[in-house]
């Protein structure tokens, strides 16, 4: 027995010593981009169904759309992609796209107007979570035969009423607008699912990359499409590896085993500041952090109290301490870079002013209970609010819970106050205007749980009508002005105090150039990246 | 004569029946009852857990109609007891359902992630046993000396140091600073999918493929997390070994053996150690089972795509099909390890036969 123990111990030790002689990998191959990211949110690769961040990253690089954003010039807004041009009918309800010639899917099949027709109809008929992005234009499974129609090299889509053309086109740049290869998809159809089961784990696009493999919670491997119509990407492979911990991502980057670390906490970002061969890439994203007050609360619904609370938030203190570098002050519902976004930030911590406002409303000894989800930054925001509210005599009780506990109450209009985060669903101002400032029926029976204004029992006092008007305004400049006006009023009257907008800080190999994470409106683009 | 033969056969049959068939049947029934209990408890916990599986699928901005439709599709609108029976029926047909998160069959997922954990836990246990047992024995033999003290300190640190911290420190020192071992993940990024997956365990698959480059790379990745788990296993195994040995060394038969003039080595290994083998088997089986199921933090720190991180991710996302599938497999491993240790018990200890 002892001899066996000795032999085995020697083998283990010997192997360990042998391994120490192995050279550590010093750098990633020049033709490959290696990314560490949390990709455990990918649930499907089907563009008709995908609605998560990491999934959008894949889709952005795999699927062409009718119109799309140029990663090197996001500020320019949408431009032609698989559709080379478009015209709008006189009544403003029909947009007719002319398809680009000579573009092929990864399978070699040509991209046609019939593929575009199939893809959009399919997304409506399948009716998965993101389908509302299309069905809000009146498309239904019953009417897509007449409303989304290919004719030769053109595709016409006809909406139920006149909408701003920019609104419709912006929505078509969302993941759900991805054009799939009809022949390949239908060849893999099972039980009339229009290829949904197959497309969950496979891809059939015409974009710069195709998916070689997706191992849930492990990795996504993409390989370049040499026939991409904008030119073959410089990097032949992109591997996105699931690495949960910020510290591990940092180590991998410092050792040269990855090129890009997507989820670094402020400490790790600071730790790498000035490190040789590593840059910090910073981009403003679309996620907002806000607090909201329930209009059903007899005191919180008073205008003076709403304003007082907006003066009781230490925006700067939070930005400069625990949110260090990861959020920036932003006080309105449209994230910066969205059409019509304004940077007015009239509120700052002012306890005296808040006290005056509370006194004028006759409020004394107020006690509020706020629902907070268990995310660390939200709890820290709650604790900061507890401190500043107390300075004006308001007692804030935090009830920290899981998503189910907190959101269920929020959606049932049962919370006094909610500390929340909201990300836009598609790159058009209507996405946030339609939830923060839109509430056509404020009754409990309406059950409009998807609308934040309804969840806070806020009768928007005329903003609903203004949002309705802005979404159909055809003139882009007028439309922009309308959103600006809505937001200035929202800033004064809303029970929402929007506080911060997300900044994404990535650590990257200094050799990596032309990186674009997609800003506030889209996802990462790998094809312009060089090393 | 014929009558005598038939009664002889009957006795033999009855002896065979009571010796093999009855215990086997008992074991199978006990497995079935244990697994049923496990399924029921997991199912109930899953249903009362404050996480909403529907919300994870449809997202926060979904309307009530979308939410209700998804709930109905997932079968969550039916009474819990009905849901359980449907689930049980499917499991008995070998179907763990489809993961709500990645839309793949759960059984397929488990087939992919379990070998990763098995590989890690096996190496960890081997390290723990082959270092922990001798350490425990020496600590007992040299009771009160510096070796004993050292063994105690090793066990104490193993018990008290948070695995999360130790893992990150290990990565920082051995991977980050010294560059002696591979970083997070099972294998270097360039070696992903290089060797064909036969067993799902990269070390074995690379040997089968004869690809020593991949073997070395995979070994450089596994050595650190396995050592970490091995250390925890060592701490437990050495402590238990020490206490079993101490008990034996104070027994009368040992004194007798020594009085008889037997060499100390023979006294320790032939007499004392032989008598603790049986107890050690249980300890090792328990330690192995714990590593198989409890290495969640290690898997997360080292981005090890095993069953621990699979179940955790599923749990946090309310992917109950995946949670239950994973739990059933882990439960089954526990039960099988128990049966295996019972069998070894019988082999090594004639009294148990």
From TrEMBL, chain A:
Keywords: Signal. InterPro entries: Peptide/Ni-bd, SBP_5, SBP_5_CS, SBP_5_dom. Its main location: periplasm. Pfam families: SBP_bac_5 (PF00496). It is found in: Periplasm. Residues 79-442 form the Solute-binding protein family domain. The keyword Signal applies. Residues 1-26 form the signal peptide. It comes from the Bacteria. Belongs to the bacterial solute-binding protein 5 family. This is ABC transporter substrate-binding protein. It comes from Roseovarius pelagicus. The lineage of its organism: Bacteria, Pseudomonadati, Pseudomonadota, Alphaproteobacteria, Rhodobacterales.
UniProtKB/TrEMBL annotation, chain B:
It holds the Pfam family BPD_transp_1_N. It is a multi-pass membrane protein. Belongs to the binding-protein-dependent transport system permease family. It comes from the Bacteria. The keyword Ion transport does not apply. The chain crosses the membrane at residues 20-45, 120-141, 153-178, 218-237, 280-302, 322-345. This is ABC transporter permease. Residues 114-345 form the ABC transmembrane type-1 domain. It comes from Roseovarius pelagicus.
């Amino acid at each position: 027995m002892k001899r066996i123990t000795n032999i085995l111990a020697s083998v283990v030790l010997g192997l360990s010593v042998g391994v120490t002689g192995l050279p550590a990998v010093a750098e990633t191959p020049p033709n490959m981009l290696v990314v560490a990211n949390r990709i455990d949110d990918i649930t499907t690769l089907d563009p008709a169904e995908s609605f998560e961040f990491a999934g959008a990253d894949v889709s952005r690089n795999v699927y062409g759309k009718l119109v799309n954003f140029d990663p090197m010039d996001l500020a320019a807004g949408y431009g032609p992609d698989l559709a080379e041009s478009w015209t709008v009918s006189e009544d403003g309800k029909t947009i007719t796209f002319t398809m680009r010639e000579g573009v092929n899917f990864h399978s070699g099949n040509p991209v046609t107007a019939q593929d575009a027709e199939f893809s959009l109809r399919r997304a409506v008929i399948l009716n998965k979570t993101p389908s509302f992005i299309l069905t809000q234009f009146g498309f239904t499974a019953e009417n897509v035969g007449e409303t989304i129609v290919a004719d030769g090299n053109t595709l016409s889509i006809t909406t139920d009423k006149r909408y701003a053309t920019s609104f419709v086109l912006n929505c078509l740049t969302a993941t759900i607008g991805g054009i799939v290869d009809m022949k390949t998809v239908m060849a893999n159809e099972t039980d009339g699912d229009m290829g949904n089961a197959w497309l969950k784990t496979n891809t059939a696009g015409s974009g710069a990359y195709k998916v070689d493999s997706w191992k849930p919670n492990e990795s996504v491997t993409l390989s370049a499409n040499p026939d991409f119509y904008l030119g073959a990407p410089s990097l032949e492979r992109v591997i996105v590896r699931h690495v949960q911990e910020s510290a591990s991502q940092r180590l991998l980057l410092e050792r040269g085993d990855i090129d890009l670390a997507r989820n670094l906490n402020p400490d790790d970002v600071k730790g790498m500041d000035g490190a040789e061969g590593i840059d910090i890439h910073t981009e403003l994203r679309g996620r907002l952090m806000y607090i909201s007050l329930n209009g059903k609360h007899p005191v919180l619904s008073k205008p003076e109290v709403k304003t007082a609370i907006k003066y009781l938030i230490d925006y700067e203190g939070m930005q400069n301490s625990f949110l260090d570098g990861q959020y920036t002050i932003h006080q309105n519902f449209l994230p910066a870079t969205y059409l019509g976004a304004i940077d007015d930030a009239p509120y700052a911590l002012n306890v005296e002013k808040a006290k005056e406002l509370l006194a004028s409303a006759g409020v004394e000894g107020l006690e509020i209970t706020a629902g907070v989800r268990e995310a660390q930054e939200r709890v820290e925001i709650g604790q900061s609010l507890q401190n500043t509210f107390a300075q004006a005599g308001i007692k804030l009780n935090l009830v920290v819970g899981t998503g189910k506990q907190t959101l269920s109450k929020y959606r049932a209009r049962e919370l006094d106050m909610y500390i929340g985060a909201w990300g836009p669903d598609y790159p058009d101002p209507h996405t946030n205007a339609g939830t923060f400032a839109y509430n056509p029926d404020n009754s409990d029976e309406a059950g409009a749980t998807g609308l934040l204004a309804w969840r806070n029992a806020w009768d928007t006092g005329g903003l609903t009508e203004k949002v309705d008007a802005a979404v159909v305004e055809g003139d882009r400049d007028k439309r922009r002005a309308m959103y600006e006006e809505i937001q200035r009023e929202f800033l004064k009257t809303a029970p929402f105090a929007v506080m911060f907008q997300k900044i994404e800080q990535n650590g990257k190999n200094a050799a990596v150039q032309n990186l674009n994470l997609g800003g506030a409106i889209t996802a990462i683009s790998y094809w312009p990246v060089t090393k | 004569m014929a009558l005598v033969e038939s009664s002889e056969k009957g006795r033999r049959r009855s002896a065979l029946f009571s010796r093999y068939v009855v215990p086997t049947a008992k074991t199978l029934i006990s497995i079935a009852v244990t697994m049923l209990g496990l399924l029921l408890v997991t199912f109930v916990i899953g249903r009362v857990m404050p996480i909403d599986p529907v919300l994870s699928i449809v997202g926060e901005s979904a309307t009530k109609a979308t939410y209700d439709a998804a709930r109905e599709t997932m079968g969550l609108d039916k009474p819990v007891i009905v849901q359980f029976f449907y689930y049980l029926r499917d499991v008995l047909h070998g179907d763990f359902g489809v993961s709500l998160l990645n839309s793949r069959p759960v059984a397929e997922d488990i087939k992919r992630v379990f070998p990763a954990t098995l590989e890690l836990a096996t190496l960890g246990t081997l390290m723990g046993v082959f270092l922990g047992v001798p350490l425990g024995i020496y600590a007992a033999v040299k009771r009160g000396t510096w070796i004993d003290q050292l063994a105690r300190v090793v066990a104490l640190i193993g018990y008290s140091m948070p695995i999360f911290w130790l893992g990150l420190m290990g990565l920082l020192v051995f991977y980050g600073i010294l560059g002696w071992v591979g970083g997070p993940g099972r294998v270097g990024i360039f070696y992903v999918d290089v060797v064909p997956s036969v067993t799902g365990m990269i070390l074995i698959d690379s040997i089968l493929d004869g690809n020593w480059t991949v073997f070395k790379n995979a070994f450089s990745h596994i050595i650190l997390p396995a050592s970490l788990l091995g250390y925890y296993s060592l701490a437990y195994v050495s402590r238990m070994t020490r206490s079993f040995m101490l008990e034996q060394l104070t027994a009368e038969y040992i004194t007798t053996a020594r009085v008889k003039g037997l060499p100390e080595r023979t006294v320790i290994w032939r007499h004392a150690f032989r008598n603790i083998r049986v107890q050690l088997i249980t300890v090792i089986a328990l330690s192995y089972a714990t590593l198989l199921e409890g290495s969640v933090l290690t898997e997360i720190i080292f981005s090890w795509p095993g069953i621990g991180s699979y179940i955790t991710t599923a749990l946090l996302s309310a992917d109950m099909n995946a949670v239950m599938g994973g739990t059933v497999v882990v439960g089954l491993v526990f039960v099988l390890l128990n049966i295996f240790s019972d069998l070894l018990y019988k082999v090594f200890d004639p009294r148990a036969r």
